[in-house]
Amino acid sequence: SSLCSRTCKVLPTTSGAMRPGAQVYVKVFDDEEAKSSGLVHRRIGHLVRGVMGCVVALLAAGCLVAARGAGRPGSAAGAATEAVSLAGAGGPAMVHFSQIVNKTELPKLAGAGGSKSYLKDVAFSKVPGKEMAAGLYRLNAGPALIYTYTYEEIKYIVEGEFHLTDGTGQKVVARAGDLMHFPRGTKVTFETPNTGLGYYIGQRVSPEDAVEVDSAVKEAMESNPAMVYFPQIKETIGTQPYLENEDKSNSFLGDIVFSKVLGKEMTAGLYLDEAGPALHYTYTYEELKYILEGEFHLTDGTGQKVVAKKGDLMYFPKGSQIKFETPELGLGLYCGQRRGGEA
């Protein structure tokens, strides 16, 4: 049986108060099989009445438990939300990339200096002058890859670890669950004792060696910026601010990383959706979303339906009209072609 952690931490909203009806996340300890499989999501409402309104920081080795708090939107509100149709059916269709780690064969990266580097772009946003490419990069043990970024990149570590050194001398061991930001111009040495796999979003055209090295890129390279490290981002679950919306959906969104290249701004963060009324959202920008936990049941303005599960990648073009639902919980790492705070 599982035992709830006795420690809880109240995480207020930006106004200083817990949102009424917010779910409660509790770290529990389960059997070894559950620990090794990652996060487990269970409903144990009768077990957490004594800690209602508390959130315990999520640890990768623990289990995730959700229970409904008081004041949750009732069935009438849910039914009313379900009756709302997508406004102005249409807009571009979302694009679904299923289980990208298992289904993507990574070719060897050309010009990798003898390193055992493998890379493939999987999804693209092709807005002229603001292109984005998302894909997978793997490095196996052997010679280091020495790389200078001619574009901005955000990389989530999917498995293994990367031992990184930048041009400032900063050293980071980026492990599965960590997030890295490599500003344009960053000089990085990639090494690994065994293997490392990263999901990246680059502010660039495809392929990566087609990026034009213009005066702005040269200036960035000369400035020798430092990489930025965000450890274990999934542990922040439950701290994301509530996303205000007319549907009264249980949606939470928190920006983490900001690329501020003028005219090409790019923002990444976590979006958490909990069971309840659906969220209807029209994208005013391009977005790529990698599903980290749970699942999203999605319907776009064309009528297309997708169940996006952990390990899937979604592309939402500008103008796409999306209905977000989840039977229990969905957590996604997004990267949007927008400034911070403009979701």
Automatic annotation (TrEMBL):
It comes from the Eukaryota. The chain crosses the membrane at residues 47-67. InterPro entries: EutQ (IPR010424), RmlC-like_jellyroll (IPR014710), RmlC_Cupin_sf (IPR011051). Keywords: Membrane, Transmembrane, Transmembrane helix. This is (S)-ureidoglycine aminohydrolase cupin domain-containing protein. It comes from Pyrodinium bahamense. The lineage of its organism: Eukaryota, Sar, Alveolata, Dinophyceae, Gonyaulacales.
